[in-house]
Amino acid sequence: MHSTQLEVFAEIEGIGSASGLFLSGDLLYIIGDNSGYLNVYHIKTKQLQKIRILFGNEFSPLENIPKALKPDFEILCQYEDKLYILGSGSTSKRNLMIEFNLITQKIVQKDLTETYGKLRSVAKIDDQNFNLEGAVFTGKAWLLFNRGNGIDAKSGIFKIEGADLANLGQVTFNSFKLPNIDHIESSFTDATVVKNEIFFIATAEDTKSTYADGEILGSFLGSINLQNLKLTFSNKISGKHKFEGITLLHQSERTTTFLLCEDRDTDELKTTVYQLVLNY
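Now predict its structure.
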């Protein structure tokens, strides 16, 4: 059996619609789905730094980019000295990938339109049901998590062999049935790897659209075995929050502690980061 404890870790001014985060030492990297910045929150000093990652006249302003134009950066994952920031693919405007080097701060931009088209074809998912919200990169393969909040509820994991998402190798799709609340099935909103286990968060949202928001019914924390992609457990952690980002804070013999961020679907440039303790 598992139990969880949820509490506020930090209140941060200057970030809206937080959708992904990654912790490295004292630095907490945070993205927003309607922002052209990578945010760096210095935990000890509580200072916020902004790094511009979108360039071009079509992205103006760089905060609260209109919904029809926003890149919808829903994914922030890390491997070695790079961060990978991916659009959800839920519209044709949301197919961008940013590679950010943590050492040099070099930015590389890639268009994943062709890649996302191939993924939809492999999984037989149409445009209205494709919505990537989480990713894990092992250095040799990618796992991309489709939220499945469209009318067909196509929650699942794409496994992609190879390191370069812009040049696809072998692709498989594993469908997933996740817990429901009031007959509304939850769907993936992010994932991270701890040792040989994938920890994911999922939200039940009363909508049949990857574009339009709905009533939030609750969120879950669960785990999946990295090798066989089988569900290990899931626990309801909230009845009101729409958590969209997860990163490891620390782990001991009896607990694993994560940081979570929440997308409140508002234009307010303020975000709350939560601490979630999983007890074994």
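The radius of gyration is 17 Å.
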